[in-house]
């Protein structure tokens, strides 16, 4: 049976991956907390990304900038004036919605009612109107589709307007106007304002990149599809600074490199695709999304954008500080390229969205056994590098020195991998519990272990068990847990 988003949400909650925020107060819309297993999986994803950026490339370094930034940052980036989404209000409920999301919901409704083509056509039409900036056309489409407000069930819609999604707060005295600051809606700007700091102190030579992982905040209006669209989320972004004129070459290189990354963390090629943007944001000269096939359809997980010199140039204008780089490489006439504002190719992926993609992909239900013994086996087929726990060690019995022997093995492995000891319940149940959280290896200690220092390893995906010497455990597990 096909996995639904509801299966994913339930599993994530039941096994300590993702909880609704402040659940005892009935939750907070579009805000989620990661539990004991979720935080491990998410940290592993972030580590893999960080390594893929700063360790594999000798010309990419990391930073960690603050969430709060000088308010002029958002003027320069264009977020204050034009970071906009098409919003529509319902006159009866006084509720505000993102117009594109109302239409997406309608398309899903068509799909759920066995008319996916109709939903697809609706999305195409919406894309055409948004690309053309035809907000009135978007409103007419909402009306002609008979879309009603989910709250008031009426269709008394206002015009569609562009709206700013940044959260703001006050620093210091509340009365002062100048103290209004924003929670960053993207991590990229923390990199742009530190471009020269890093370039100079790190003696970086173009082309080079700066990577960052951090929280971003957007007051998303329609909150749904679980952690796909949150109000507080984490981005993993890398801005790659290049000589103007070479940006398309780098754009293509990073596009391919990033697709490979998603395959390396276990997302299958047939569930990934590029979506090339025809209508470009004001700062971009090329843009492509990497989309993953979620249970609710193909959706963006990462954007790769060629941002030209838009950001550095506007920071230069507003700050009156030169954002130039001196390039002493020689051009075809043997002269140094000299001073210029670099162009930027960025890769931007949501840690939470990637988490959701990886989690959806890992969730597996398999029918096993025959006749009366037939049952569904559920497990998380996570890449071992991402699994919250790498190995669980079980004594077959809680006596005769087996627990002590098992604890000894845990101690040996613990410094290198996240390993747990488990002795409760029958061994079959213990395997099942580890399957449900995606533990790739279970190690069982039995009476033979006491005689010859061998154990059985059971592999999660195949359930195959093999007998190996304890001395081989480190290398066997080690081989599988890296990407
Ligand atoms: P969307 O169109 O889905 O709102 P976007 O095009 O605005 O996304 P970008 O601004 O390019 O997204 O952000 C880069 C990445 O950050 C996205 O590919 C996504 O993985 C992640 N992201 C953006 N908004 C959210 C959100 N509200 N919740 C979770 N992740 C997000």
* Share of residues in helices: 25-40%
| Unique bound compounds | adenosine-5'-triphosphate
Number of continuous helical runs = 16
- Widest β-sheet, arrangement of strands: 3-9-10-16-13-12-11
What's the β-strand tally? 23
| Largest sheet descriptor | 7 strands, mixed
Name the poorly predicted regions: none
Structural class category: alpha+beta
- Report the β-strand fraction as a percent range: 25-35%
Q: Indicate the overall shape.
A: globular
* Mean pLDDT across residues: 94
Give the termini distance in whole angstroms.
30 Å
The gyration radius over C-alpha positions equals 26 Å
Task: Tell me about this structure.
34% of the residues lie in helices and 28% in strands. With 483 residues, the protein is of the alpha+beta class. The strands form 7 sheets. It has a 7-stranded mixed beta sheet with strand order 3-9-10-16-13-12-11. The protein has a 5-stranded mixed beta sheet with strand order 20-19-21-22-23, with helices on both faces. Strands 5-4-6 form a 3-stranded antiparallel beta sheet. A hairpin with a 5-residue loop joins strand 22 and strand 23. Helix 2 crosses helix 12 (351-362), helix 5 runs antiparallel to helix 6 (116-131) and helix 5 (99-112) runs parallel beside helix 7. It starts with a helix and ends with a helix. It binds adenosine-5'-triphosphate. Residues 186, 218, 220, 229-230, 233, 235, 300-303, 348-350, 352-353 line the site of adenosine-5'-triphosphate.
């Amino acid at each position: 049976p096909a996995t639904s988003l509801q299966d994913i949400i339930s599993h994530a909650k039941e096994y300590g991956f993702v909880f609704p925020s402040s659940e005892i107060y009935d939750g907070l819309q579009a805000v989620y907390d990661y539990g004991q297993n979720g935080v491990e999986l998410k940290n592993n994803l972030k580590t893999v990304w960080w390594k893929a950026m700063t360790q594999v490339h000798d010309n990419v370094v990391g930073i960690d900038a603050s969430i709060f930034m000088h308010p002029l940052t958002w003027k320069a980036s264009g977020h204050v004036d034009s970071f906009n989404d098409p919003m529509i209000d319902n006159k009866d409920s006084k509720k505000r919605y993102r117009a594109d999301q109302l239409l997406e919901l309608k398309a899903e409704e068509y799909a759920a009612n066995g008319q996916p083509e109709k939903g697809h056509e609706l999305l195409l039409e919406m894309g055409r109107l948004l690309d053309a900036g035809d907000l009135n056309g978007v409103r007419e489409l909402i009306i002609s589709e008979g879309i009603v407000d989910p709250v008031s069930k009426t269709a008394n819609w206002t015009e569609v307007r562009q709206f700013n999604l940044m959260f703001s707060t006050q620093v210091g005295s509340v009365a002062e106007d100048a103290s209004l600051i924003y929670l960053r809606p993207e991590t990229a700007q923390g990199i742009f304002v530190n471009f020269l700091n890093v370039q100079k102190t790190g003696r970086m030579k173009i082309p080079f990149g700066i990577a960052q992982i951090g929280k971003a905040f957007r007051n998303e209006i329609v909150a749904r599809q679980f952690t796909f669209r949150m109000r507080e989320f984490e981005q993993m972004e890398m801005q790659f600074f290049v000589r103007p004129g070479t940006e398309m070459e780098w754009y293509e290189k990073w596009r391919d490199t990033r697709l490979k990354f998603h395959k390396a963390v276990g997302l299958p090629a047939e569930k990934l695709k590029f979506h090339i943007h025809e209508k470009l944001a004001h700062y971009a000269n090329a843009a492509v999304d990497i989309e993953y096939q979620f249970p609710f359809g193909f959706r963006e997980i990462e954007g790769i954008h060629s941002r030209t010199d838009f950001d550095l140039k506007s920071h230069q204008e507003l700050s009156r500080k030169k954002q130039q780089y001196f390039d002493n490489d020689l051009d075809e006439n043997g002269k140094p390229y000299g001073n210029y504002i670099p162009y930027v190719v960025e890769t931007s992926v949501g840690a939470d969205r990637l988490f959701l993609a990886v989690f959806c992909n890992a969730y597996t239900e398999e029918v096993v056994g025959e006749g009366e013994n037939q049952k569904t086996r559920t497990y998380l087929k996570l890449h071992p590098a991402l699994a919250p726990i790498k190995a669980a060690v079980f004594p077959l019995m809680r006596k005769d020195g087996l627990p002590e022997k098992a604890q000894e093995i845990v101690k040996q492995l613990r410094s290198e991998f996240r390993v747990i000891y488990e002795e409760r319940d029958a061994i079959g149940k213990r395997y099942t519990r580890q399957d449900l959280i995606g533990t790739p290896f279970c190690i069982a200690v039995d009476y033979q272990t006491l005689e010859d220092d061998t154990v059985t390893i059971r592999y999660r995906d195949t359930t195959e068990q093999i007998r190996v010497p304890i001395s081989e455990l480190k290398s066997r597990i080690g081989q599988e847990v890296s990407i």
